[in-house]
Fold each of these.
Amino acid sequence: MKRQDYLSWDEYFMGIALLSAGRSKDNNTQVGACIVSDENKILSVGYNGMPTGCNDDEMPWERDGAYLETKYPFVCHAELNAILNRSTGSLKNARIYVSLFPCNECAKAIIQTGIKEVVYWEDKYADTDGVKASKMMFGLAGVKLRQYRPTGREFVLKV
């Protein structure tokens, strides 16, 4: 008889997104993303961080201060990194698992690549204009939104 307590696809892919978030060097917000095909094959992963070639020891990580002294004009979000990390092939009809609901800039990239579903862990910025714009665009583009429901199952990774 086969094992019955294996991870569901949602648990597995959200787990990959959460694990990817652990690569982020942001001291406030770590976000991960995992893009999968409609055949449940991982197409790409990403996390929020500085652009390739920019030494992140020399970049600002602050949230407050003059714009160019903060992380905001520089950090590449997890969703965009996952999209850009896919070097070949289409993302059409794929779904993306993200640990944080996408901002409006990432929403545009998600829509433009043809991703059809966003599965997100948390939506802590739901009241911001950026997330409201994301939801509006996703609705207009027919992108399905689904909040991941944690199962409460614990999975320990020893590294």
Amino acid sequence: MNIFNIKLEFDHDAFRNTIEKCVSEKGKGYVCVVDGNVLSVTCKDPEYQKVVKNALVNTCDSSYIAKMAGDIYGQKFEAYNGPRVFEHYIKKPYKQLLLGNTEETYQKIVEKMRADGGNPENLKYQPVPFAKVEDFDYAGIASQINEIKPDLIWVSLGAPKQERFMSLMLPHLKQGVMFGIGAAFNYYVGSINEPKMQIGGLRFIWLQRIFEEPKKQIRRCWHFLTVIPKVKREEKRKLKSKKA
């Protein structure tokens, strides 16, 4: 649905169907995993908002965003966060590529897949150099990706960098669905743990991250908190105009 001036797919089956249809047709596209940080940047940066809008499909990474949408529209929405998306697809027999993060994390993912009875043979890793998003050699990186011919490409550069990276990479790819997946690799191997606490559908992942990365996460949470009133107000106004 079009909500908060971006696209968000709250129907998990529809989300997966869109990805799997694209893969089956050897198509290409990218997926943004929308948390509070991503949403707050879309509110402040029109170019970044276009990047998120132009995605193949987006998933809601934040239980609070899902609840906020539900409160406005009188429906029940459930987040489908990055770690869950990654865990779902890493088990599938697709040809997959981990782009970014570290060789050490890749090896840990391979070990966990083997321990869980999975087959890591179709899982490849490609590092990318540390650079500003406008300085990457997109054609050069894409040529290596195109040789692998992956169905799924997991991009771990951190938001908002990874979303911009995917939009600039897309024209150079021949096939493959890219996911801006952030810290999902680290959740999968257990170097970051999902909180067990849950109240009314809220999972408090942001609170866990604050303890683990206080400086970075407090700044992100503050930016999100400052845009919430505007986001709610604009969405309620849009809904009211539709009903009028």
